[in-house]
Amino acid sequence: MAQAAVDWFDFHADYEYSTDDVPVPRLRRRSNVNIDAIHDFPVDCEMAPAQLYSTESGRLFHSGKIAIVTVGLPARGKTHVSVALSRYLRWLGVKTHAFHLGDYRRAHMGPGNDVPHDYFFVNASPASVKLRQTILQKCRFDLYHFLNHEMGQVAIYDAVNPTAEGRRQLSKEFLKHEIQTIFIESYVDDPKIIEQNVRSVKISSPDYQGWNPNDAVQDYIRRMGAKIPHFETMDERELNYIKMSNAGESIIVNNCRFGYLPNRIVFYLMNLHIKSRQTYFARSGVSTGEDSYKADGLLCDEGESYSQRLCNALLEHRKKEREEFIRQGGSDEELKPLTVWTSTRRRTVQTAAHLQERGFKVKQRPQMSQLNPGNSEMTEEEIKTHYPTDWDKHQLDPYHHRFPRGESYHDLAVRMEPIILELEREKNDLLIVAHESVLRVLYGYLMACSTSDIPSLEFPRNEIVEILPESYNNKAKRIPIPHTDTKGAYVP
Amino acid sequence: MASNFGFEQIEDSQICVVMVGLPARGKSLIAQKIVRYLKWLSVNAKSFNVGSYRRADTPHPTADFFDTENVEGERLRRAAAEAAVNDMLRWFEHEGGHVGILDATNSTRSRRAWIEERCKSKGYDVMFVESKCDDEELIMNNILEVKTTSPDYIGQDPEVAARDFRDRIRNYEKVYETIDEPHLTYVKLINVSSQVIINQVSNYLQTRIIYFTMNLHITPRSIWLSRHGESEFNVLGKLGGDAGLSPRGMSYAEALPGLVKASVGVKDITLWTSTMKRTIQTTKHLTYPKKQWKALDELDAGVCDGLTYEEIEKKYPEDFRARDDDKYNYRYQGGESYRDVVIRLEPIIMEMERGSDIMVVTHQAILRCIYAYFMNVPQDQSPWMEIPLHTVIKLTPRAYGTQEERFRANIPAVSTFRAKYTSANMGGETAKRVKPPVAGAQANGVITINDDVETAPQKARAVSVVESLGLNGDKTVVG
C-alpha cells in the first residue's frame, strides 16, 4: 500500500543506530506549519499549547507511565482513535507517541510483500509465530525506549490484539516495567459504519485500483474475515479497558480508576467519533470603525461583499470536490451537511449570514470570542512607546506573554478546550468564522503546531483553510477566494 | 469588568440530570457533589430532592408507605415527584438554571419515560445517572449513615430505623428496572465506578458531568487541609516568593505530627504539598507517603511578587483598588487570578474526589479555593475567607452535608488576612484568633495549652483544641 510505505520511510528515519546498537532518536523539527506534526517526537523543552504547568520529570498529574493498547479488527477506527488521542494528550502537555504495529509489519516485510496467510491465526505455524515475535519485539523495544529513556508518559500501541490471553500477557509484561495498561476497543457491529470506514481508508490502496468500489469493499471485508478468523471482544474484568461501541454510541469503562489521566482519556473518548469530516476556517469580514475589542462593530460594505464572496467560494469548492470524488470512483452519496460556528461578535455572525440564508445551520459560541488584547490594543509603535518592557517580553515568548489586563494565547487555548472537544464531537462538515487569534489556536490544535508557531500563523482574508483528516494525520489546504485581496477587499 | 471566559457560557443548553437507583446507593451524595462541582465552575446548578417534597406531607413514613400496592402511598409519592419536576422546570425557565438534578429512585421505566417526556416537551436535554451497587458492605455503610442523619428517622431507635429502612429498600427492589432503554442518554455506575456504562451522550456539558461522576466514590473518608507554617515572608508581610519557615513556622512543623496523629489515628494517609520550600519544610517530620504537586503552588502575584500590600498600594494604586472590587476575577499583572487558580486546580480536585484519606499542605489562595469547593462557598466570598496559619482543618463529606473541625496548634503566627479595601500592615502582628467556640458546640477531649510556648519555641508541644465550627456557627454544615 503506497501510503503506508511512505510513512515507513519517514518513520524509520527517526533513528540512527549507534555502535552499541542503541537507537538514538534524531529529533526532526518541522517548522513547516502546513504539515501535521502529530508524528514528530515531542521536543523536550517546549511547553505544549494547553499545558497548565510543567514539572521537572516531564510527566504530569502524578499519573506515571501509561500504555494505551488498542483492540479491534481492521477498519474499526483504531488508528484514528490513536492519532486523535495523541493529538489531544499532546495538546495538554502529556508526552505521548503512537506506535502502529502495522507500520513495523510493513517495514519488516518490505514494500509489496505481505505476511503469510496464517500470520494472524491462533494456531499458526512456527515460522509465522517466529515472524510475529520478531516484529513485536521491534515495536515493543521502541515503545519501552520512549517511556523509559525519553521521559514519555503515554505510549499508544496500535494493533489488533485479538485474544484475551494475549491481552492478559501484555498487561502483565507492561506491569513488570511499571507501566499501567489501558485497553481501548473499538467494537463495531453496524455494517454501515464498517463499510464507510473501509471505503474511506482501505480501498485507496494500489491493490484495488480499477475495481468497482462496492466490490472492493466486499472483497476487503472478506479478506479480513479470512485473515483474522478468531477475535475475542474484551471482557476481562480484571483489566482496565474502555470499549467503544459503534463509533461512540455507547462506551463501557471497566476499572480505569488508577489516576487522573485515564479519566481524562475517557472524557476525551466520549467526545470522539470515527466519522471523518472536513473543517474549514475563515476570517470574519472587516467591520466599520476600528477592529476594537470592546466595540462590537458591524460589517462595513466591504465586509458585506467579502462575506458574499466567501459563501460562494466555499460552496463552489465543495461542489467541485464532490464531483472530483465521484469521478475518481467514490460513492455518489449526498454531501455531508455543513454547520457554521461563529463567535457572538456581530461581525462574525453577519459574515455567516449568507450561508444562513441558504439554509445552513449557524451556531454562535461565546467562548470563541477573540483574544483579549488588554491594554495593548493600539498600533505597534504605540505599544513600543508605552510598554517597552512588555513589548520585549512579548517578542521573546509571544505564546505565553500577557499584555497588562490582556490574555495570552495560552489562556485562549485553555479557554477553548470545550470548543476543541465540541470540534471532535461534530459529525457534520464544519465552517468556523472567527477572529484570527481563535483560528490560530484551533489550527494549532488540528495540525499539532508548536507554541512558537501558533502566534504567527497567517489567515489572510483571501483564503479559506480546509483541514482534511486522513488515516494517519490531518492535511491542510488553502482555498483561494477569487477577486479578493488579503484584507478582504474586492479586486476586479 | 473582567472578561467572562467562563465555563458557564458553553451552551445555552439546559440539562435535566435524573438520578436512578435503589435507596442507599449514594444518589443524593452524587447529586450534591455534581451541584457543588458545577457551581465551583460557575455553572448554575441545583438539586431537587423528591424525598424532601414527600417529607412535607409525610414526615415519618414506615416501609409499607413505599409498597407499590399501597394506593394512597403511591398517590402521595407521585404527587411529590410531580411537584419536584414542576419546580425544576420553573427554575429552568425563570431563574436561568443550567443543570437541574432530580434526586429520586426513578427506578421504573414508566417513571423515566414520564420524566423524559415532561422535560423534552419544554426543550430540555435529559440525562440519567444510575448508581447500581450490589456490594453488601457499601450498602450497609450507606444505611448506617442514612439512619443516623436522615430527617426521616430523627428521634427513632437506630435498630428499628435500620430494619425499617431495609424493608423500604425491599419494596423498591420488587419493581426495580435497571436502565437499558437504548435511546436514552445515560451513565450507569456499577459498584461505584468499577464499571461505567455510557450511552448516547449528546453534548459537551453532559460529558463533563459524566467525567466528574466517574471520579466519585461513596466510601467514607476525610480531608485534612493546612497552610504551611509561618514563613519569613509572612513575618515581613510580603507576598509570594519562595521563602523558608520562620522559627515559629518550624515549631509548627514539629507540632504537626502530633496534631495530625491525634485526629487521624493509626491510618495511613496520602500527603500532598506544593513544590515550594515552605510547604515541604512544614511536612518534614511527617512520615506519610508524600507527593509534590506544582498545581498546588501559591497564586502567582506577577509583578507584585515580593512586595508588601503597602508597597503594592503605593506602586500600583489602580490595580490595588481593582483587585478589591473583584478579587475572584482580578489578575495580577504577569500573574494569576483566583479564576485561573480554579482552572489550575481541576486535576487536584478530581484526584481528591477519587482518593480516600488525604492531607494537603499548601498556600492561602489555594486553600481558599479547595475549601470553597468542598464547603460550597460562592465565588464572591471565597477569596475573602480567613484561613489562619497554624491550623489544621478537617473536612468529612457526608451524605447530608460536610462536617468541619479545626485543630489549632497554639503556636502564634502573624495574620495574613487583609480585609477588603484596607492595606493593613501585616508584618509583626500577633496571631489573630479564630472565632471562639459558639455556645453549644462540642469540644471533645480538650487538652491544656502549654503556656510557655512563646518563650521557648523548641519545646512547643502539640496541642489540639477541637472546635466544631460551622459556617453559621452550628455543628452540621451545608453540603
From TrEMBL, chain A:
GO BP term, example: fructose 2,6-bisphosphate metabolic process
Pfam families on file: 6PF2K, His_Phos_1
Gene Ontology terms for molecular function: 6-phosphofructo-2-kinase activity; ATP binding; fructose-2,6-bisphosphate 2-phosphatase activity
SUPFAM superfamilies: P-loop containing nucleoside triphosphate hydrolases, Phosphoglycerate mutase-like
CC per GO annotation: cytosol
Sorted UniProt keywords: ATP-binding, Kinase, Nucleotide-binding, Transferase
Transmembrane feature ranges: none
Highest rank taxon of the organism: Eukaryota
Domain 6-phosphofructo-2-kinase intervals: 56-275
Protein's recorded name: Bifunctional 6-phosphofructo-2-kinase/fructose-2,6-bisphosphate 2-phosphatase
Automatic annotation (TrEMBL), chain B:
Keywords, sorted A to Z: ATP-binding, Hydrolase, Kinase, Nucleotide-binding, Transferase
Active site: H228, E298
One family name in Pfam for this protein: 6PF2K
Biological process according to GO: fructose 2,6-bisphosphate metabolic process; fructose metabolic process
One GO cellular component, as annotated: cytosol
EC numbers for this chain: 3.1.3.46
Enzyme class: hydrolase
Domain 6-phosphofructo-2-kinase: 8-220
MF (Gene Ontology): 6-phosphofructo-2-kinase activity; ATP binding; fructose-2,6-bisphosphate 2-phosphatase activity
Keyword Cell membrane among record annotations: no
PANTHER family according to UniProt: 6-PHOSPHOFRUCTO 2-KINASE_FRUCTOSE 2,6-BISPHOSPHATASE LONG FORM, 6-PHOSPHOFRUCTO-2-KINASE/FRUCTOSE-2,6-BISPHOSPHATASE
Family statement: In the C-terminal section; belongs to the phosphoglycerate mutase family.
Identification of the protein by name: fructose-2,6-bisphosphate 2-phosphatase
